[in-house]
Amino acid sequence: MPFTYASGASNSEDANSIQETVTNSFVKTKRFNIVDRSKMDLLKKEKELQKTEDFIDGTVIAQGNALGAEYLISGHVISAQATQMTTESGKSVYKAKLAISIKVIDVATGQVITSETIEPKAGNSLLGAIGIGSSSPQLAISKAIQDIQDKIDSFVMRNFPSTFSIVEIQAKDSKGAATQLLVAGGSDSGLEKGDKLKVVEILMMEVNGKKVQRKKEIGELKINKVEDENFSICSVKSGGIDINTKHESKANIQVIIALE
After folding, report:
1. How far apart are the first and last CA of the chain?
2. Is this structure's pTM higher than 0.70?
3. Model confidence over 223-249: pLDDT tens digits?
4. Are 232 and 166 in contact (CB under 8 A)?
5. CB 14 within 8 Å of CB 76
6. For the chain, what is the HEC assignment?
7. Percentage with pLDDT > 90 across the chain
8. Half-sphere exposure of residue 31, counting CA atoms within 13 Å on the CB side?
9. Angle at CA 154, nearest 5°, toward 38 and 143?
10. Letter string b/e over residues 250-259, b meaning 16 or more CB atoms within 10 A of that residue's CB
11. What residues pair up with 118 in beta bridges, in sequence order?
């Protein structure tokens, strides 16, 4: 959804820049189909145009067919401002104050799944105070926006973790515990040698009359080798017996990135 901002605390240009930064964090995972609500009017006009005779020999979008969404991402710029300061050498530089809040809304239930306020690291929020000052207010804010990219990436990974399947168990010990696995995830998913992964069993539980999904951790893996864009070889650090048993019984198990 179009990011909003507090009057006097930011402007539309900075809000748009921050929105693009958040969008990029979702896009680069290659796991989402994203629609920018601020461009919905253009999409609607295009769909209407494709219903006309001009597109009779092309792909016709069926009337009434709408883009469905599972989640809405809303953002609010609490502050995106730069103030002038003078260094010990008498040089004028600018420091930026940046803070944004992001919410994830489940479209099916209308509930806010998560909400988080994101700010640059303490050492970089005062751009200019540590000798790397910006020469203009806009440059200071731009640097601050760049500085929150990692935090936004982390926000996406925590709330929408990548999931992978166990393709095969390649080795077991004398007790039947899995010791090495082939996982369906490689360089295209951003996996690297040494990354830690968790194996979880997906269970459906009824709580207060509602079915709730539970992810029960059953083991931990470490990537030994990223074979290519699609596959990685992992050693089992814990839970080898459970992993082997669940895999053989065709239980609903997934591999997810273990966030620090």
Report:
1. 29
2. no
3. 999 999 999 999 999 999 999 999 999
4. no
5. no
6. CCCEECECCECHHHHHHHHHHHHHHHHCCCCCCCCCHHHHHHHHHHHHHCCCHHHCCCCCCCCCCCCCCCEEEEEEEEEEEEEEEECCCCCEEEEEEEEEEEEEEECCCCCEEEEEEECCCHHHHCCCCCCCCECCHHHHHHHHHHHCHHHHHHHHHHHCCCEECEEEEEEECCCCCEEEEEECCCHHHCCCCCCEEEEEEEEEEEECCEEEEEEEEEEEEEEEEECCCCCEEEEEEECHHHHHHHHHCCCCEEEEECCC
7. 37
8. 14
9. 70
10. eeebbbbbee
11. 100
Buried b (16+ CB within 10 A) or exposed e, 149-163: eebbbebbbeeebbb
- In the chain, domain spans: 4-159, 163-257
Question: What mean pLDDT is predicted for residues 86-96?
Answer: 81
Q: Is there a contact between 132 and 110 (Cβ–Cβ < 8 Å)?
A: no
Superfamily for the 163-257 domain: FlgT, C-terminal domain (2.40.10.410)
pLDDT band at 57 (very low <50, low <70, confident <90, very high): very low
With contact defined as beta carbons under 8 Å apart, do 188 and 162 qualify?
no
Residue with tokens 């988080």: 116
